[in-house]
Design goal:
By secondary structure, the protein is an alpha/beta fold. It contains 11 helices and 20 strands. The strands form 3 sheets. Strands 6-5-4-3-2-1-20 form a 7-stranded mixed sheet. A 7-stranded mixed sheet has the order 7-8-9-10-11-18-19.
Length: about 425
């Protein structure tokens, strides 16, 4: 029986990747991310998701896909036909970002979830810090670099790529009709671009190449793309400029390499980074050294020696934002945003965050680096891979990917079945 491909997420939107490959009575699902809403996020603060109804509520409002045979019946509405058994399924997660793994806690018991060992470690550390997946951890199966897992007639190989989280991976799925390659999230201006180009080498000539295309819908970058070296340099310069005053920080703690770099730079400047409680637990679980929690330092220490610290408050749900009024804000205090929470102006939390900073007189300086491949790099990647068919997902502008010299571009329809050549397959009426 021929292999088929369906796209249950990431179609016309950034995030929420879900690529389903089926052959015979076996299925492989590449990523099972949380849907990122096209418009209004119905679960934004102050709404608090109901833990016992987490999946049922999302299905009710269209914020999770009605993919048969994968969900835990205990998390579904009684009588929901999605509770019925489906074909044997294995899941392969590209990395530990919520839009790629946020629904794996809702998987049916017995479904294996494969990922890089670093990804599994990050997800287990989040659970230990009280920030785990709704539904709990799935059956994690660490998959080593370029290790293959056989699942029925399908073989899946993991290839490490470069992104802003440890363990980021692409996958090669070998079927009887050829190879489907998937980038996950990828960049070429980070710490290890050679990893990303390695995926291009391994995927060369594949039947279908499924690539993220986040940058396709974004404005043209003004000037050179910012690198991790730029981020570290700007962090060090900001600490020097703020000498004697408290510096505030918003960085993504899952970027463990940046965490270690920032701790080192802060130490060289005579400062210690202080983290919110959950982040401190998370970092310690992963073996990060010199981690200080706010409860171990206290507000008075920050007031007594503001120039000796960098502080990252926990503002995930903004409930603690009034606490900012208690901080010792000086003339040179600055809030350095390095891809942390809230993530950016596209988020519903961002206006409230910036309003508080304006009132408190704290300037915001964004020093982060883009975690995704630029449009130019994406086109170079596709040219090097030279697949028969290329499928841009994880973007709100897939039509802006223009392959040259051979590949056919497929702009998929959600949940439509295709063969590996990108041709739609009509479903047989029951």
């Amino acid at each position: 029986m021929a292999a088929t491909v369906e796209f249950w997420g990431g179609v016309g939107v950034i995030g929420s990747s879900k690529v389903l490959i089926t052959e015979g009575d076996h299925r492989v699902l590449l990523d099972f991310g949380l849907d990122i809403p096209r418009g209004t996020d119905l679960f934004r603060p102050p709404v608090v998701p109901r833990p016992h109804r987490y999946l049922a509520d999302r299905l009710r409002v269209g914020a999770a896909p009605r993919l048969p045979g994968v969900y835990d019946p205990a998390m579904l509405e009684p009588g929901d036909p999605l509770a019925q058994d489906g074909p044997a399924t294995a899941v392969f997660v590209s990395h530990a970002h919520i839009d790629h793994c946020g629904l794996v806690g809702a998987l049916r018991p017995g479904i294996e979830v494969h990922a890089a060992p670093e990804t599994v470690a990050v997800m287990r550390a989040l659970t230990a810090a009280g920030d785990g997946l709704p539904g709990g951890d799935p059956d994690w199966r660490p998959l080593a670099e370029e290790e293959s897992a056989c699942f029925g007639p399908l073989t899946v190989e993991r290839v490490t790529v470069d992104h802003d989280v440890p363990g980021a991976s692409g996958y090669l799925v070998t079927t009887s009709d050829g190879v489907l390659a998937f980038t996950g999230d990828i960049r070429f201006h980070g710490r290890a671009p050679e990893r990303a180009w390695r995926l291009a080498e391994r995927a060369a000539g594949c039947e279908m190449f499924v690539t993220e295309g986040t940058a396709l819908g974004l404005p043209v970058f003004p000037g050179p793309v910012r690198t991790e070296q730029d981020v570290v340099r700007d962090f060090a310069a900001a600490l020097e400029e703020a000498r004697g005053d408290l510096v505030l920080l918003a960085m993504y703690p899952r970027d463990l390499e940046r965490v270690a770099e920032f701790i080192e730079v802060a130490g060289a400047a005579g400062r210690k980074i202080v983290w919110g409680e959950a982040v401190a637990v998370f970092l310690r679980e992963l073996g990060v050294q010199d981690v200080l929690a706010f409860s171990e330092v206290g507000l008075q220490a920050l007031k007594d020696d503001p120039g000796g610290f960098v502080y990252q408050p926990d503002l995930r749900d903004l409930r603690g934002i009034p606490d900012l009024a208690d901080l010792p804000v000086g003339e040179r205090t600055v809030w350095l945003h390095a891809n942390g929470e809230p993530l950016g102006p596209f988020e519903s939390r961002w206006p409230l965050f910036t309003e508080w900073l304006d009132v408190l007189g704290i300037p915001l300086r964004r020093i982060g680096s883009f975690g995704h491949a630029t449009a130019d790099d994406l086109h170079t990647l596709v040219h090097r891979v030279a697949p028969r068919t290329v499928v841009p997902i994880h973007t709100d502008a897939p039509e802006r990917l223009h392959p040259v010299a051979g590949p056919v571009r497929l702009l998929p329809v959600l949940a439509q079945s295709y063969d590996l050549g990108g041709h739609p397959i009509e479903r047989t009426p029951k």
